[in-house]
UniProtKB/TrEMBL annotation:
Transmembrane segments: none
Protein name, as recorded: Delta-aminolevulinic acid dehydratase
Record-linked Pfam families: ALAD (PF00490)
Class of enzymatic activity (EC top level): lyase
SMART domains, per the entry: ALAD
Pathway(s) annotated for this protein in UniProt: Porphyrin-containing compound metabolism; protoporphyrin-IX biosynthesis; coproporphyrinogen-III from 5-aminolevulinate: step 1/4
Source organism of the structure: Campylobacter canadensis
Family statement drawn from the similarity comment of this UniProt entry: Belongs to the ALAD family.
EC number: 4.2.1.24
Catalytic activity: 2 5-aminolevulinate = porphobilinogen + 2 H2O + H(+)
Keywords: Heme biosynthesis, Lyase, Porphyrin biosynthesis
GO terms of molecular function: porphobilinogen synthase activity
Amino acid sequence: MKRFRRLRKNNIIRQMVQENRLDINELIYPLFVVDKASFKKEISSMPNVFQLGFKELLEECRECLKLGINKILLFGVLEDDKKDACGSDAYNENGLISRAIKAIKQEFKDDIYLIADLCFCEYTNHGHCGILDENGYLDNDKSLQISVKQALVMAQAGVDMIAPSSMLDGIIYTLRKALDENSYYNIPIMAYSTKFASAFYGPFREVAQSTPKQGDRKSYQMDVANSKEALLESLEDEKQGADILMVKPALAFLDVVKDISNHSKLPIAVYNVSGEYAMLKNAAKQNLIDYDRMLIEIMLSFKRAGASIIITYHAKELALILGAK
């Protein structure tokens, strides 16, 4: 009889043989900036997640550093009257995202590793991730052109990494080529290489004010039923020059994370999205779960599947939990 319990006898030996561990250095914390000097609004569907003005954005970054979190994924949230059909504020060197990047880098320099989400759904008046044609279909190649403009504005502002999330065909090759041609060789690209057209994004659209005005995103985001296509997308992004691959959402797609990690040597990130966060928060509010234990189990499931980077709204809580161990 094989006695597996020998290695479970007490906490010391259990920790010694533990296969996967959480580390604060693996966490990326998403933040949402609005074009106001001072502003803070909690999102009703996402407790402890806020839209932040510039003053509060810098305060939040400072608090993150105190907790040991030094990687931020930044989203811009634009007011409706500043949006247009092509999301031009996103590639304006004096636009919201450019000024926010500059503010963070001026205040914190290299203490904060700043990743910018590159997309247009928060900046267009129709809520889609690029330029629409006359039939309301996302024009892939025209959207690539403005994506290059946005990437270069972010690079000029001082961003450390770019994360294109629009799921455009050829986006990684196009951005890598443009960055290299403009001497931004050392800016990595974290590809949203497998981004599903998921119901788990609902609360995010409240915080980012990015709900499509008509239609949906199923013509460019991936079908949730497809795993082989997910692998193909990710391997193609690797071939085009991605430095990190990402699966979004995370929890319902761990099979995809495992499959990609088995076929790629690149680091794998998962985005623990708003719907996953909201479900756990609501379960805790109703005293249905042991919140801290369940949170750790979910994070470890990402690690077991092959992720080495976790983007999560739980980052500050995890920092406190991990620091207490």
